[in-house]
Amino acid sequence: MNTQLPIPSHFNPAKVSEIWRVPYQQRSIDAEEWAKQHNIKPASEDKSRVCLLLIDVQNTFCIPDFELFVGGKSGKGAIADNVRLCEFIYRNLGEITTIIATMDTHTAMQIFHPVFWVNSAGEHPIPSATNIVPNDIDNGNWQVNRAVSYSLGYDYEFLEKYAYHYVKKLTDNGKYPLTVWSYHSMLGGIGHALVSSVEEAIFFHSIARNSQAQFEIKGNNPLTENYSVLSPEVLQSFDNSPIAEKNTRLIKQLLEFDKIIIAGQAKSHCVAWTIDDLLTDIKKIDINLAKKVYLLEDCTSPVVVPGVVDYTEQADAAFKRFALSGMRTVNSEQ
Question: Which of the chain's termini has less CB crowding within 10 Å, N or C?
């Protein structure tokens, strides 16, 4: 990054952990004045095209007391990450061509939500504390809730067979087993929205640089998880018929930029799997493309639930692997 700009006076780090309405009209006036004052050119004039890819910077993951708040080791992970992220956007406003924000997007009846599963007593699994592996289905611990098949538009026998195939596929792939998550990122709900301070920074960038922000929906398929924005966890049913597809349009778009900077939540899950999928495609085309990917390591945190799970080691190991492949791990002040 070249010329670092000052941080506009409207940015208040103390409000990053809160939810509030972005005053769009006022910010648009401020952004145009800011662009004049600091001689910030439209994004169309950029000689080097830089994309900032923000993974799931949503209330559900980033605001304390929300469903899947990413606290990291410190317990304040996502909040501190987003303070640095907003400052990074403002300081480098003149260099970032396009901001792409991914939006984890869910409804109630999805394969990783409690209502999808029942035990013999008709109870649903405890969210975030239940993993389901093939043995659990074989032993009758968990089965698909017959009542959801009507609403999802599949017959029960199909869902039963599919759910077993899905759980087995995850286990075979060596990724995480199926985790039954708390209801989160619910479409239409406040948890789904971007963190207010980050949304404001993205909007300010859009106006100051005449650059349309892009939003990528992921995770709305009822039959698969979608940690990565580039590909769902499972693409085919038990009979090899497609149930979801890779986001080849976005992969192609990302690789056309001169630099791709990646930040967001959570380092151990959606961030790691997105980078992993991008790396898989880079390896197919030209491993040297990895050099244009920058990972903002101080703007992402792993999932840590004290006394329950701690994915710090897995997240760090993944980032080490990405760095060895040629990607650059940097901090937001570099």
Answer: C
